[in-house]
TrEMBL record:
Pfam families: DUF6227. Residues 1-21 are annotated as: Disordered. This is DUF6227 family protein. It comes from the Bacteria.
Length: 258
């Protein structure tokens, strides 16, 4: 059963009123990942004047449940800061697990990894994955720890210095919810046996806001010892140009050795 955003469910804490400081202490004390919160966020919360908690979304089915709570503080400089608490019982033993995030997208990524379906639209508020009516995804995406897949792909890339996707790409892919891997063909400008040393793959990602982006993986064995090597680029053009550069360099080296 999906619970609408104006549900009467109460936050997972006692009803007695308490100060913003006490409220924060309770959150940090029960969250398994409180140590991951940025120090800057905790420093800013030290000046909190007031706070409010509301249920953002929830889902209950087959004995499993999860709720996402929005905890908002008014700070002394008149700014507002929000933490997102994910509560679920999908861990072994069915005991409630609490997780705390400073970013709504990070909370969404954590929610997508649970064995529960996303919420349908409720109270006029669309689910973050809802695409515009006139937009169709370019790929048949599969939700499967896609943000982690992107991190592992970037981590194993051995691109030359200054020739790899930057930090902005890595940040964007933290919001990846689903992905698809396909082998890319076409425009084979490499000749002979050199062409056969390469494989080109598109790793396409669907983001929580409905956007799509891709990483392009080049696999080859044109290394001095024949070792398998992986390079990753943020455009197909950059990936194919890298393939051609490596092929030309390999051919020149072979002729020189010969």
């Amino acid at each position: 059963m999906s619970v609408p955003y104006d549900t009467a469910y109460e936050p997972p804490e006692s009803p007695e009123p308490h100060s913003p400081e006490e409220h924060l202490e309770r959150l940090l004390g029960r969250a398994l990942n409180s140590f991951d919160l940025p120090d800057e966020v905790l420093t800013r919360l030290g000046s909190a004047l007031a706070h409010d908690t509301s249920l953002h979304s929830a889902h209950h089915s087959s004995g499993l449940h999860r709720e996402t709570f929005r905890h908002t503080w008014l700070l002394a400089d008149a700014s507002v800061l929000t933490l997102w608490e994910l509560v679920h019982n999908t861990a072994p033993g069915s005991a409630p697990t609490h997780e705390l995030y400073a970013d709504e997208e990070e909370a969404g990524v954590a929610t997508s990894r649970l064995p529960l379906p996303p919420d349908p639209p409720a109270c006029g508020r669309p689910v973050v994955l809802q695409l515009p009516a006139d937009t169709e995804p370019r790929h048949a995406y599969v939700p499967d720890d896609s943000a982690d897949h992107a991190r592992r792909l970037l981590r194993r890339a051995e691109n030359p210095d200054g020739d790899r996707p930057g930090k902005s790409v890595a940040r964007l892919l933290r919001a990846a919810f689903a992905h698809q891997i396909t082998q890319a063909f076409g425009r084979p400008r490499l000749a002979g046996e050199v062409r056969m040393c390469f494989s080109l793959y598109e790793h396409a990602f669907l983001l929580f806001d409905g956007g799509e982006t891709s990483l392009w993986e080049v696999e080859h064995t044109l290394t001095p010892d024949g070792r398998h090597m992986c390079e990753v680029y943020d455009t197909e053009e950059a990936a194919r140009a890298a393939m051609e550069r490596r092929a030309r360099a390999w051919t020149r080296e072979g002729r020189t050795r010969g």
